[in-house]
């Protein structure tokens, strides 16, 4: 793979990661083991070709996957550390899960109920966390469940996930997706479905596989298998306990209206045995994460550039646009303090009123108060910053004229810019 060979020659990807062996590959991505040079931490780097994404029409899936994973911090969900990008590639830097896929463990033999229950409890903990945040995975299966060196399950691959924003006016999702053997019957009916309920069905199939060692619905003929799923035709093997049989009948209920809910799963006798609740690992709010103290300049990694924006507009990862009438982001080689000083100098020279913000940023207004501009600066590396510009008030055309034609040229000319002084970063508005 040329870009990886080049990275190896340069000793590190983006100067941060030493890339190692290939862990796996698919139609649109390859995953490599890598090591963070500074910390020594092992990570997995998922490399995606922009060209293949564009040709396949799946760019929206990758954008959604990034925006979804930015919301999720849970011990049983693979963590996305940051996202990096070049003109041709997108790089997901992910938590490295040493134990590999749960599927590989099942292929060696079925689990006992206690062993399976522990994995299932961790799976439901992660699924409940996602649902509480409006995220529905829609492709839960052993191949997308990883196990770390301590035997803890980690949910991965949110490429087919959905969020509440995708729900139609009828309150349902309508995209056909998922892996055939794990897909819920209502998806096959093509009448819309509840994302939470299809995840519960898939969890039921996973649980059956863990304890049985084979699929509940399977047939060489895909249409025959679909008929079995639609009718709920499956048989539990003799070694299943009565409690597990009863529990599975509720998980694999073909009627989504009567199927067990996640909340009800937590109260089921089979599930509750030995269950230890996971504390909430939710993301901190947008306020001061250090209790009021701390530095005045916020340090960012590339993933923060994406996630700190409430709009999560990811267009900068996929195209070369440099912003519009509501604002933009770009990189400069300078310190945050110097960039702010230069913005102030340029604004005063243009006759704008300048107000310093508590952190590294300034608010600009014209004397009449007819428009306002907010400029914030974030440190990315020692001498590399992200400048985020937002139109606060007034006409977009006036903003474009003042910012683009008067302020920005002065700022870029006065700073030691990147190779492309107008280079956009992920999240350009």
TrEMBL record:
<dbReference type="GO" id="GO:0004674">
    <property type="term" value="F:protein serine/threonine kinase activity"/>
</dbReference>
<feature type="binding site">
    <location>
        <position position="46"/>
    </location>
    <ligand>
        <name>ATP</name>
    </ligand>
</feature>
<protein>
    <recommendedName>
        <fullName>non-specific serine/threonine protein kinase</fullName>
        <ecNumber>2.7.11.1</ecNumber>
    </recommendedName>
</protein>
<keyword id="KW-0464">Manganese</keyword>
<dbReference type="InterPro" id="IPR008271">
    <property type="entry name" value="Ser/Thr_kinase_AS"/>
</dbReference>
<keyword id="KW-0418">Kinase</keyword>
<keyword id="KW-0547">Nucleotide-binding</keyword>
<dbReference type="Pfam" id="PF03822">
    <property type="entry name" value="NAF"/>
</dbReference>
<feature type="domain" description="Protein kinase">
    <location>
        <begin position="17"/>
        <end position="271"/>
    </location>
</feature>
<dbReference type="InterPro" id="IPR011009">
    <property type="entry name" value="Kinase-like_dom_sf"/>
</dbReference>
<feature type="domain" description="NAF">
    <location>
        <begin position="295"/>
        <end position="319"/>
    </location>
</feature>
<dbReference type="InterPro" id="IPR017441">
    <property type="entry name" value="Protein_kinase_ATP_BS"/>
</dbReference>
<dbReference type="Pfam" id="PF00069">
    <property type="entry name" value="Pkinase"/>
</dbReference>
<dbReference type="InterPro" id="IPR000719">
    <property type="entry name" value="Prot_kinase_dom"/>
</dbReference>
<keyword id="KW-0067">ATP-binding</keyword>
<dbReference type="GO" id="GO:0005524">
    <property type="term" value="F:ATP binding"/>
</dbReference>
<keyword id="KW-0723">Serine/threonine-protein kinase</keyword>
<dbReference type="InterPro" id="IPR018451">
    <property type="entry name" value="NAF/FISL_domain"/>
</dbReference>
<comment type="similarity">
    <text>Belongs to the protein kinase superfamily. CAMK Ser/Thr protein kinase family. SNF1 subfamily.</text>
</comment>
<dbReference type="GO" id="GO:0007165">
    <property type="term" value="P:signal transduction"/>
</dbReference>
<dbReference type="InterPro" id="IPR004041">
    <property type="entry name" value="NAF_dom"/>
</dbReference>
<keyword id="KW-0808">Transferase</keyword>
